[in-house]
């Protein structure tokens, strides 16, 4: 009984301090009409931008209004293929394999992929 209580208390401390809370990936893979894609928690397709540098977003201002970044909390931590990049305004954005991730304002429901191929520089983020 004492061991169970100690284990539960330790797990509670880890969760409260965020040690376990940061292990979940910010997106998941889902099937779309164009194959597997990364999607956010609401099932909305995520995209990459060819004009981004590795680990750096080059989509700001009007671009970021049309292509909202997949924002990360200031306390978010990198894990595996997932990293956090700092945007020009100091906010944090999720990246997958070094590529910052974005949503597309014209996708209105989960699974839509209308942003794929826009201006030949936007592409579905694939797992």
From TrEMBL:
<dbReference type="InterPro" id="IPR014558">
    <property type="entry name" value="UCP029720"/>
</dbReference>
<dbReference type="InterPro" id="IPR005297">
    <property type="entry name" value="Lipoprotein_repeat"/>
</dbReference>
<protein>
    <recommendedName>
        <fullName>Lipoprotein</fullName>
    </recommendedName>
</protein>
<dbReference type="GO" id="GO:0043448">
    <property type="term" value="P:alkane catabolic process"/>
</dbReference>
<feature type="signal peptide">
    <location>
        <begin position="1"/>
        <end position="21"/>
    </location>
</feature>
<keyword id="KW-0732">Signal</keyword>
<dbReference type="Pfam" id="PF03640">
    <property type="entry name" value="Lipoprotein_15"/>
</dbReference>
